[in-house]
Amino acid sequence: MAGLSGLPRAAGAELAWKTLHKIERPDWPAPNLADYDGACAGFSWDAARAALTGLPDGGLNIAHEAVDRHLDDGLADKTAIRWLAKDLTPRDISYRELAALTSRFAHLLERLGVAPGERVFSLLGRVPALYVAALGTLKAGRVFSPLFSAFGPGPVRSRMEIGDARVLVTTAAWYRRKVAPWRNELPGLRHVLLTDAGDDPPPGTLDLERALADCPDSGGLVHTAPEDMALLHFTSGTTGRPKGAVHVHEAVVVHRLTGLLALDLHQDDIYWCTADPGWVTGTSYGIIAPLVLGATMVVDAAEMEPARWLGILQDQRVTVWYTAPTAIRMLMKLADKDDPGIFADYDLSRLRFAASVGEPLNPEAVVWAEQVLGLPFHDNWWQTETGGIMLANYRSLPIKPGSMGRPLPGIEAAIVHHAQATGAVTLLDTPGTPGELALRPGWPSMFRGYLHEPERYAKCFAGGWYLTGDLARRDADGYFWFLGRADDMIKSAGHLIGPFEVESALLEHEAVAEAAAIGIPEPTAGEIVKALVALKPGVSADEDLRRALLAHARKRLGPAVAPRQIDFRTNLPKTRSGKIMRRLLRARELGLPEGDLSMLASDAP
Amino acid sequence: MATIGDDPLRETVLDALTGIAPDIDPAALDPDINFRDQAELDSVDYLNFVLALERALGVHIPEQDYPRLSCLRGCLAYLPTLTSTPQD
């Protein structure tokens, strides 16, 4: 296991914060999870599976659970999605309309000759076409893979190559900027559907609206089995290319269960998940879970803006809100308990439950929310590979600010020591012992593989555990506390960024000899990517070159992945086997103890 | 320190923007269109842009006014209304 130096949080920090005991209001529905211990003791996955409708002959299809089944349960004319345009004009889409739209999309895939199991990628913001493409793809038994729209052409291309993209749904502008320049090098990409091309789609593309126009608006559901591939979510690795985590239709068991228990979603809720659709949260909780539970979800097309968000919470009467630490920290600048600022202008009294995910939520933010919003944020933890929430702070349990909470009923979580050399895994049962967070495999939304990479998949498991790569501690009450990553992955604004992808892009620049990407703390984003660069002989380091490298990296990677800072070094410290020591560089940047340097071979000042 | 006036202010805004995102070509910017709708900028970039403006102009920009800085023309209309505060 990796050393613990450079932890983002001091051990024992939780002692400084009082446990929050929450109030319940008489107008609120009872919590879905009223008795945590009882629910854990009596839990069975079979019962969780039985809560779904399913298809004949043991089949299961996420889109059927999320949409079509509501045609028969009295919810058909209820609003499934209230989409807010950038000017806040609403467009309501009922479950019935969503069923029709997704059927048309499913028929379109059939008509285009896309085979079941083949991948349909999206590169879209929060627009109605995204929801239609995602659910229509699933309905058709094809596999949906969302990309983050702030990716540059590099990350878009590598993910579409690895995922064997057959279809891409995007906008004309993003197609032109991020895909068209290399499209001919990806012959497997047969169809590009543009949401806004109108009468004049560029060569080799189709306008989505026109292509859908004469597709039938019912049927199109393909019988899928619980273990059929449904979703491909990309995540970054410390080394090598991004990994495509494979999820199957049975993941919907966990989407439903966690929506119910961890987010306390009730059918009458107005639910708002602010996550970008390009990430796993935007799919599991920004599309699937609320629809399976028959709630109404609010979707905002625009980017985060504090006054806009408060207006949406108030005007849409949001009851359950799922957001992220970076956004919460931006809101925290606007108010505190002594000065409610613009919060005083908004009525947020409809809000019953607020949750956060993406990176650890600092205890200040939990307490701030209780003081300013009147209810605390409930932090929870999960990752692309787990497919759904695994640890959570629940409505019915006290919150320890700064903690990720306790395992979902049905999930066994532990702190372990994993000896890299022997592969042995030891349980660390003593409360408070730091180690790697591990989960007992077998929950329905567990990833079934990294596409085409069985060896990397196998490496995630040892001694009967799934090893998460996150370091944590469990206290005597069973609450888990995040400590840091066991590897060199960078967590920025809720996104996991692989240093290798950043370094590879920098190395493509003619002036660069060596590059290392590390995460350094930043108050709003948690961490930002900083690159340390050694130049080729004869190249001089100056401000013009620094800006040129920044521009190069941003064009190649997009703002979500590119470094925010670049510094020059004469040489980068390496192990004797030539591996750049990112951990040491990070310790130096942060003024932390450098640890054991015996592996160090080269390190010119 | 730049003065709040016409052309120097425009230059200050564009410097702040291209300092964060040197991939942006200032000549190609439409002054009436949201920066984020015509260039690759995310929310962290945008925050850094506002902080860079504060440093360059020696002003404090209240968070609720950030939306007024979303395009070039908005910046040029809004920034002169701020009172410069001395920096240490």
Strand arrangement, major sheet of chain A: 2-1-11-10-12-13-14-15-16
Low-confidence stretches of chain A: 1-13, 598-605
Distance between the termini of chain B: 13 Å
Shape by Cα distribution of chain A = globular
Concise synopsis of the structure shown:
By secondary structure, chain A is α/β, with parallel strands linked by helices. In chain A, strand 24 and strand 25 form a beta hairpin. Chain A is globular and about 70 Å long.
Secondary structure layout plus pairing:
The complex is a heterodimer of chains A (605) and B (88).
Chain A lengths: L35 H6 L3 H6 L11 H5 L12 E6 L5 E5 H17 L7 E5 L4 H12 L3 E5 L5 H10 L2 E6 L1 H8 L11 E4 L10 E3 H5 L16 E7 L7 E6 L3 H10 L8 E4 L6 H13 L3 E5 L5 H10 L4 E4 L1 H8 L20 E4 L6 H10 L4 E5 L9 E2 L13 E2 L5 E6 L6 E3 L7 E5 L9 E2 L3 H5 L2 E2 L2 E10 L5 E6 L4 E3 L2 E3 L1 H9 L4 E11 L3 E10 L7 H15 L7 E5 L4 E2 L6 H9 L9 E3 L3
Parallel strand pairs in A: 1-11, 3-4, 3-5, 5-6, 6-7, 10-11, 10-12, 12-13, 13-14, 27-28
Antiparallel strand pairs in A: 1-2, 8-9, 9-20, 14-15, 15-16, 17-18, 17-19, 19-22, 21-22, 22-23, 24-25, 26-27, 29-30
Chain B lengths: L6 H14 L14 H4 L4 H15 L14 H7 L10
Describe the model:
The complex is a heterodimer of chains A (605) and B (88). With 605 residues, chain A is α/β, with parallel strands linked by helices. Chain A folds into two domains: 13-470, Rossmann fold (3-Layer(aba) Sandwich); 490-602, GMP Synthetase, Chain A, domain 3 (2-Layer Sandwich), CATH 3.30.300.30. Helices cover 26% and strands 24% of the residues of chain A. Chain A has 17 helices and 30 strands. In chain A, the strands form seven sheets. Chain A has a nine-stranded mixed sheet with strand order 2-1-11-10-12-13-14-15-16. In chain A, strands 17, 18, 19, 21, 22 and 23 form a six-stranded antiparallel sheet that branches. In chain A, α4 crosses α5 (128-139), α9 (252-261) packs across α10 and α15 packs across α16 (543-557). The longest helix of chain A has 17 residues, at 95-111. Chain A is globular, with a radius of gyration of 24 Å. The two termini of chain A are 29 Å apart. Chain B is an all-alpha fold and 88 residues long. Chain B has one domain: ACP-like (Non-ribosomal Peptide Synthetase Peptidyl Carrier Protein, Chain A), CATH 1.10.1200.10. Chain B has four helices and no strands. Chain B has helices at residues 7-20, 35-38, 43-57, 72-78. The two termini of chain B are 13 Å apart. The interface between A and B is medium-sized, with 32 and 19 residues.
